Amino acid sequence: MNQVALFTLPNCKWCNEAKAYLKSKKIRFNIVDVSKNKHALNDCKRHGCKGAPVVLINETWICGFDKAKINKELGIK
């Protein structure tokens, strides 16, 4: 089973889109609010991500809400 984490910011349109998309695909995921978790924010930055959302699937970091990359990593068509 894939381990999925969604790093978000409050009131972020693309974060809400990503949440809705993962829910619609029945993907289980953990939400991490980077405005409250500075360690998680630093992890995102260290992997080259400059904004939210960031999707972490197993060991793959996806910066932004990129459906094609998310689908590829999860094996969704």
Summary of the model, kept short:
By secondary structure, the protein is an alpha+beta fold. It has three helices and four strands.
Which ranges are low-confidence, i.e. pLDDT below 50, for 5 or more consecutive residues? none
Q: Which structural class best describes the helix and strand composition?
A: alpha+beta
Multimerization state: single chain
Question: Strand arrangement, largest sheet?
Answer: 2-1-3-4
Name given to the CATH architecture? 3-Layer(aba) Sandwich
What's the CATH topology label? Glutaredoxin
CATH class: Alpha Beta
Percentage of residues in strands? 15-25%
Q: In total, how many beta strands?
A: 4
Largest sheet: 4 strands, mixed
Mass-distribution shape: globular
Helix count from the secondary structure assignment: 3
**Rounded Rg:** 11 Å
What is the CATH superfamily?
Glutaredoxin
Total domain modules: 1
* Helix fraction bin: 25-40%
| pLDDT averaged over residues | 96
Strand and helix order: EHEHEEH
For the record, give the distance between the C-alpha atoms at the N and C termini, rounded to a whole number. Answer: 17 Å
